Amino acid sequence: GQQLNQSPQSMFIQEGEDVSMNCTSSSIFNTWLWYKQEPGEGPVLLIALYKAGELTSNGRLTAQFGITRKDSFLNISASIPSDVGIYFCAGMNYGGSQGNLIFGKGTKLSVKP
Amino acid sequence: GAGVSQSPSNKVTEKGKDVELRCDPISGHTALYWYRQRLGQGLEFLIYFQGNSAPDKSGLPSDRFSAERTGESVSTLTIQRTQQEDSAVYLCASSLRSSTGLNEQFFGPGTRLTVL
Known about the structure:
The structure holds two protein chains of two kinds. By secondary structure, chain A is mainly beta. Chain A is about 0% helix and about 55% strand. Chain A has strands at about 5, 10-15, 20-25, 30-35, 45-50, 55-60, 60-65, 70-75, 85-90, 100-105, 105-110. In chain A, strands 2, 4, 5, 9, 10 and 11 form a six-stranded mixed sheet that branches. Chain A has a five-stranded antiparallel sheet with strand order 1-3-8-7-6, with no helix packed on it. In chain A, a hairpin with a 2-residue loop joins strand 6 (about 55-60) and strand 7 (about 60-65). Chain A is globular and about 40 Å long. In chain A, about 40% of the residues are buried. Chain B is mostly beta strands. Helix content of chain B is about 0%, strand content about 50%. Chain B contains no helices and eleven strands. Chain B has strands at about 5, 10-15, 20-25, 30-35, 45-50, 55, 65-70, 75-80, 90-95, 105, 110-115. Chains A and B meet through strand 4, strand 5, strand 9 and strand 10 of A and strand 4, strand 5 and strand 10 of B.
C-alpha cells in the first residue's frame, strides 16, 4: 500500500530557530494535510494543500505541495515553546470509495526556551 | 458542540471483554473515520463511513473489530474479546465530503483504551 516517509523523526531546537520537516510518498497524492498533535489530544489541522506547487501560509507556518505530487514540506519560522508537539503529514486521493488519509509517523518537536 | 466528541475518554477493561467506543461527529459532516494510534506511533486507518455506509473497511485489523453509524451521525466502534495488543488511543474524525475534495478531517480527542 501507499507509504509516507516523514523526516526528521524528532527535533530539538532553541526558541527562535526555524524548523523544516518533510514527507515523501511512493506514489502521488492530490491532497496533502499537515496536523499537530499535543499530548492527550487529537490531531489539529494546520494547513491543507490541494494543488501541485501550492504554497500556503498560516501565521508562522508555511507548507508546500511538491510539484511531483509525491512530497510536501512544512516550515515553522521563529519557533516558540508552544510549538512543541508531534507534527504529522497526511496524504489522500479523494474520490471513489477510498476515504482514508495516509499518515506519516510524525516529527516530534521539542523547543528549548 | 462545535467539534468532534468521543466517549469515554478513558476505558480500562480486562482481556476478553467487549468494549464500545462512541463518536459524535461535527453536525452536517457526512464522512466519519476511525483511526488507531499506538503509543508513540502514527495514525492507523481503521474504517471510513460515507453517510451510514462504510465503503472502506480495509483497515479493520480482525473480525473482532466492527463499526456502525446511524442517522448519518453517531458512530460506534466495537471491539469484541479484547486483547492486550488492542491497547491504544482510538481517534475519530469527520469531514464534509465534496467533489472538489475539500474534505479536511477534524479529529476528536480520542478514547484511550487499556486492556489488562
